[in-house]
Amino acid sequence: MKKKAVIIGAGFGGLSCAIRLASEGMDVTVLERQQHPGGKLQRITEQGYTFDRGPSTITMPHVFRQVFEQSGVSMEDYVRLYNLDPRTRNVFADGSVVDLTKDREQMKGQIAVYSSKDALRYEAFMEESQALYREAEGKFLNRLLLTPRDKYSLSMLKSLLRVRPLVKLDTLLRRYFEHPNTLMMLGRYATYIGASPYSTPSIFAMLGHVEADLGIYGVEGGTSSLITGMVKRAEELGVRIHTEEHVSKLIIRNGRAAGVQSDKGEYTADVVVVNGDVLSMNRLLIPEQYRPSMNDKAISRYEPSLSGFVTLCGVRKQYEQLLHHTVFFPEVYQDEFTDIFQRRQAAQDPTLYLCYSGYSEKGMAPDGSSNLFILANAPYVSEGWSWEQHTDTYRQLIFDKLAARGLDGLDQSEVIIHYNPEQIEQDTLAYRGGIYGISSNTVNQTFFRPGNKHKDIEDLWFVGGTTHPGGGTPIVTLSGQLVGEQVAGKYIG
């Protein structure tokens, strides 16, 4: 008989793992509490507008391609990606604009408009960014750290020294650059893993290489088409995906995960994989006496990542200021992270990221209209800020900020939909609404995250942004592949 795996959650990590396990011959069932697969990424259609609620900046396409190719098919038969160049438009408070591109001479020319010194140093920074990526790819991203030997081997310690874990991202950037615009543009990479550039280790400077050199991609039909393609491939391999089914507890027998109990029945399994926040899932599914290494006190010591305040706008206008991806920066960047991580309140002058997929693909909005995904970084859920009280006023603050940048009329949009951190926590069970799992604001939370294999319960594994190798869509997808490989090796050989 085939070995059975139950996967809780049909996000990128869970689907990636399901495809890997099924392609290796395991019997796989995926249980998803939401109406549709996708986790934090959900497709929203309203009055002719199509939105992706969730990740919209796709990088590292080889990771997604690997999911399909490992299972014996070509990704292009399921989903198609297209390269974006320019990658992202960066708009600064002083009116300067830098359109991120692979062409380093173009980049230097744009930066030179406001800082000739920064332009001269861009090439050297990009070389260091590439070196950091290669180190991360070789030592951290493509392997699981399951044992003390994995984490503390001589080669791992040497690699850690090479990436200088105690140097903050902002500190590294200041070795090359001095103008606030450049520091903001490259410091923003910290937010991709839910952290602050003034706290997170400098290894995330590698994202400069990831975006500019390796590329940012759009997805035909919207980012959620990646999920649709993965679901199709999983089901072809025999994976059963049940939606609107809520798992209420883990079944533990003799110290091992023997299955799960849902609101629709009991599922026995040889192995359980959780594609959900490690902290939330431990608290919600496992009585505390069974998880001494991840008890409630241990959970409370982790700092959640950034959350987000999302506004979806379907508006009968088009804006020449916008590309597929556009970022509007505030005048003083550091204030945003002080508000969020120290005061634990919404930033009063937030960076605003807009995804306008209709820029690249007709049919995502009616003719002459725009489908805008607007994201402001936000604090994780705490007693210090009530979104029930502040949602309407914060939306207006964002609309006013964008109107001042020339994007007027958003408050007259035909479609306006909000998702605040409290709703994100409720919908996805993300611990305290953190979009990226735990933050990467410390060395420990960056390099020594909660393990993919439960320390106290056998045959229980985790994939997703809180565990190794970390947050971000391609990295979460990679975690599913790595865990799938380990589990298949153990149960199939």
UniProtKB/TrEMBL annotation:
Annotated metabolic or biological route of this protein: Carotenoid biosynthesis; staphyloxanthin biosynthesis; staphyloxanthin from farnesyl diphosphate: step 3/5
What Pfam families does the record tag this protein with? Answer: Amino_oxidase
Cofactors required: FAD
What span is annotated as the signal peptide, if there is one?
none
Asked if S-adenosyl-L-methionine is a keyword of the record, the answer is: no
Q: Which UniProt keywords apply?
A: Carotenoid biosynthesis, Oxidoreductase
Q: Would the keyword Oxidoreductase be found if you checked this record's keyword annotation?
A: yes
Query: For this protein, what reaction is catalysed?
Result: all-trans-4,4'-diaponeurosporene + 2 AH2 + 2 O2 = 4,4'-diaponeurosporenal + 2 A + 3 H2O
Looking at the record, the residues that make up the Amine oxidase domain are 13-484
Give the similarity note: Belongs to the carotenoid/retinoid oxidoreductase family. CrtP subfamily.
Q: What is this protein called?
A: 4,4'-diaponeurosporene oxygenase
Q: What species does this protein belong to?
A: Paenibacillus shunpengii
